[in-house]
Amino acid sequence: MIGSPDVVAFTKEDEYGQTPPDPWALPDEFSIPLHPLVDSNPWAKTSYAKFTKDFILISEFSEQVGPQPLLTIPDDPKVCGTFDLNYFSLRIMSVDYQASFVGHPPGSGYPRLSFVEDSRVVLGDSKEGAFAYVHHLTLYDLEARGFVRPFCMAYVSADERKIMLQFQELSLRFSQASESLKAGNRRAFAKELQRKLRDLEYTHSVLQREEGLQREAGPQCMYSAHAVEKANELANVEKSIYEHRDLLRQISSYHRRPRRDPHVVSCQKCITECLSECEQLLDKYAKLANPFSYTAKGETGQKGQVDDEGDVKEGDEEEDDGVKRRSSYTPQLIKGKSAKCFDKRLKTLQELCDVTFYEATVELLKKTERSFRGDLCYLYTRRLDRALRRKQRVTNFLFEEDLGDDDDDEDEGGTLRPFCAVNHAVDNYTLLNPLPIVLGPEPLELDALEPPDPLDPASETSHTQGSELGLVESHLESSPSDQTLETQESSEETKGSFSSGKSGMDLAERQQNLASRKSEAPDPDSDLTPDPDHNTDLERESSSEEMETTAGEDEGDDTPVSLLEVVLELEASREDECEGFTDGPCDMEPESLVPLDTACCMAQEGFLYEASAPEAVQPCQTLVVNQEPHALLPLQDDYAVGSPCSESPAAGLELPVGHLGDAVSRTSAEDGSDCTMSASTGSDLGYGGVVTLRQRKKAGQGALKFVRQYPFAMQALWCLLSGRTLVVLGADEGRVRRLVAALALFVPAPGKCGDRVQAWLSCPFTLTDLQRWKLIGLQRVASPVGSSMLYSLSRYSRYISILDADQKTLRCPPYRGQLLANIADHRTYIRRGSTYFLHLQSTLCQLAAKAFLFTFTHHLHLPVSSTEGPEVVQGRRLCFLQEQLGLGEEDSQILLYLSQLITQQYLHPATGSSAAATCFSFNYTTSVLYKI
Amino acid sequence: MPNLFVSLLSLLCLQKNSVLCIGEEQPKNCFTELQVLKGHFDIVRFLVQIDDFRCASAGDDGLVLVWNVETGERLQELRGHSQQITAITTFTCNNGLTSHTSLITASSDRSLSLWDPDTGNRVQTISDLQSSVKCLLVLERLCVWVSGGEELCVWNKDFQLQCHRQNHSDTGITALIELPKNCIAAAMDKEIVIYRLTYSTDSSLSVAEIRCLSDHQDRIRALINVNDGLFASGSHAGELILWDAIDWNILAYEHILWEESQACTQAEIRLAAPKPSEMSIQHLTTNGTHILAAVGSGLYVYSILTKTVVAYRKVAHDSNVLHTMLLSDSELMSCSEDGSVRMWEIQDLPLPAEPASPGLFGMWTFGRSNKQTGPPSKKVMDVPNIRTLELTGDLIGHSGAVQMFVSFRENGLVTCSTDHLLILWKNGERQSHLRSLALFQKLEENGGL
Asked: By its UniProt entry, which PANTHER family does this protein fall under (chain A) (predicted)?
């Protein structure tokens, strides 16, 4: 009973993992041992894995050393822990089925570049406790065997369900990354080819000259061994030139090749740029159709100059265009067969892809990693939440945090924006079908939210069917065996067989097909009954490049696939329907992830400084890492230092969410406090403005503290909610800022960057400020400036409420309503900030719903019949507020204000753009002074 | 002893009554919404109403801005003057069916411009005048307009000078009004000069001075038409003279503060004896039956019928009143250098037997406990039919002197100020109703949410 591990685990989460020595604890020999691993989180799925959180691994199959890991994202050794990356690289590289065909295809004289589509595989390793989505891709390298370098990117997680159910999205994200890498690689490859061609030309011209000299020297040495060797060498070089030119032609024809991968979207601008570059090169070297006409080296040099390649030989001018590093390239003599040396250094990934492209890709992968943080349940809830909020655009500006659709456009409405490393204009994206999110059985709940579709009685059944089959499918695909599906299948069919990678492609592709078919002929049956012709058609289409060459071999995989095909078909159709009719819940995708771990909220005192750290550099952590005891201890001191008035360091100290490690959080905390010391100008907008959900959650603790500490909290909240500007007056900047940050939670429609909140103002404010800001932190100073400040306070006293942080008084109109009693109860039993925040959110959400109802109920604002006068409508409105919603006069004001905001938002969605200034409403009521 | 205490209190009160404060509870004040209109870079001095929903503002930055009063949008920005605007007026052309309103502006850069407020174009302009124009008067009946400054010029609607007349006064013409029989009255320093416009046979216009009225003791600050037969003028020394518009005789002469300073024998009043600036008539308005005079920081309502002051408040504002308006027979509004706009109501005294309301002279901070009424109320009691001027609301928003305001009735009120801002005051309830109407209209257009 006493030492029950469950109880301990649930109640002592604050000091979880610290276990201070308790003098009253039973001696060890008498107590029941706690959970075997005290420091580990019993809820963490990754507890048996050797790594602590999901990560992305990039590996390559090196022709010299075999599979080797290149980098992990996040690039932190702690993440992988004891996980054997080398071994895992071997595993993931060994399932590469794309099997690039190398060498000379029969019938063609030149080596061929293999255009290989990416492959997507899910594999599991139960021994390691690791499951991975593996994305294989090949990059071109002139020096590599067959000119290709196989790489793979893997999303490694301990939760196989997570990978299975997020497959589509993972596939999409990794396709983007892969496309970006390949785009960079093609550029680099073309440049390399160019360089090589120039070398070859140079070599060729040198050899030719030598041969000419020999020939002049006399016919007697015409057939000497030396001369034969020279002639052979010359022939070799010529052949090489032809080969390389052909390669150049091939690489430039890359884009004309039809892509079978539905996930591939590339930036059109990049493509055209690269294409034109290649074609330019091709033109240039096509002129050398007869390389033997070039005998003089100088001519080559001139040629190079024409093509902006300023040869070094006569290049004095190259100093000023130092930017063009490449232009100072000296052609080199090429030795006969040295290229195949085994000890040559292979290019790194950075060199293979353009550096810009490489960096952009890594950024993209980092973003991907961030957006997949958290467990499946969390991801799912968040999506659900976002999907629902997307549908409530009319009201969610009031209290919800911004959905932030600035840089995450691709998850909206199925627009798939190609990822472009060099940031080409964003208008060149293509519209794709919305990508379905495969969430297994869960989407049923989403559908349940929708009104059942009366037109299609079969949809329900197909839903359930689909989901059941979906389950089957996930079992099928993700058997937790050590073997991958790939290898299972490869026993009977080596290539292009049933792999989850292909099926994923199929799914999306089929969906597209279905969609198009639907639009052509809206036949309700066609999307439920799989069309055999269509299937085979798809089958052929979805096979990757090399299958064309081996087309005859793959009839065999029809049978094992068929069941899955039906399932996928069903699922696709279901999702198609779901999109067609609701277009809502299926097409969302997480943005940069903010794990809302309720167990990990911020430090009570330190959150403000915390919040000041830029959002972008705060990657988040999963539960496991958050509760690492080592990360907790040093933070305590930091927060005690960072926050000048921490009253109860023990009670309030919790680990901040979202730092890579304690080092990061420590620096950011210090940075934050530094900021606070220096930033006293009072003009830094948004410093205390609460914007993101994470910051809002943190503010929850402050708000809870405020509510518990001040008996007049309810009045203050009422002021904010009814649109009366609240001025927090105080001498201590930290305290004022904290109060403002806490109270900002209650400001309706705070704006995208919290622009209705001014955390710290040290100059007298004007009416325009009052119009702009609804919550102001004002510095109390005892100087002439202070008196003018007090003057402005008293002058505009009718428009504002004043919360004196030093004397703990509040001057505002009296509030006697009951609406806010449950969020401003200073005897509340809620102890945790995040709990309070959720409580608050639900209350505010309810308020917003009421305001929505009030705003859009026709007869509350307009007469029902022509005989009705305005008084009747007015009376009805009052009746609705008082009788039906049960609101008193002051509570009604909240609703009226929210309704006004909704109306304004609806009429002018972009308030900032309209020429008219915003309105500022107020009413004339006397204020009273509340004291503690 | 109690007497001393009370007189001390009243002394205190009289000094403190500059802080006339209605408090935050203002049930009669319907202006519960405001919009701050930004655009000017200097003091905004003039506001003119163009039509039911537009007004133009002009000020020391030489800019003329046209605003939509319903939405608060800035419609046009009329740029062209390089120096401050000294006068602005509307000019309505009625050509048959349509009437079109233009704006005429005068500036210190010695130019005159005609603007089209619809397009923002400068239609006509005259520069290089000999002196800057201080006032403008449009004679719509004759289709001409008059500019007054150091010289009096008459222009037709095409901006062609018809005739002009040089003045020999130093100050020049400060105000112009139209009188019957093609006459105009011009205020010049202490005199009012009557001119007559005559069309000669060849339809050319000439202007002639016919009369000079020099009954004012001090500089004339305000000159208004009261009705067809009357006009009024007010001087810096507090004289209000009512003139006959036909034969230019004095009908009434009222020295607003003269009586009072005679009557006041009490020490505290003498302490607060009116300085010239405090009795200067800053502004006059009328609605045909009453004249409202802004005297210093006080307000006086003068009845034309009885030729007496029917209601007044000696200290209506903390500082000089700059502009006033009679909204109806009982409601009036004033704005002042103290940055506030106040709304007043002329109320009958509760009962003649009861001592005057303590609120009369701003002593109502003492509430009903103050039994003794101040000496001025005794004087008030002597005058029959006197009524009180009760503060019903005030508008606080500007941080500088409120120069002028224009009322658009239910559409709101526009104020302009030295703080470079205009504020549009509106009835919040009405606006909210209008917004809901717009909401449901948009809802219908969109076919639902």
From this structure: GUANINE NUCLEOTIDE EXCHANGE PROTEIN SMCR8, SMITH-MAGENIS SYNDROME REGION GENE 8 PROTEIN
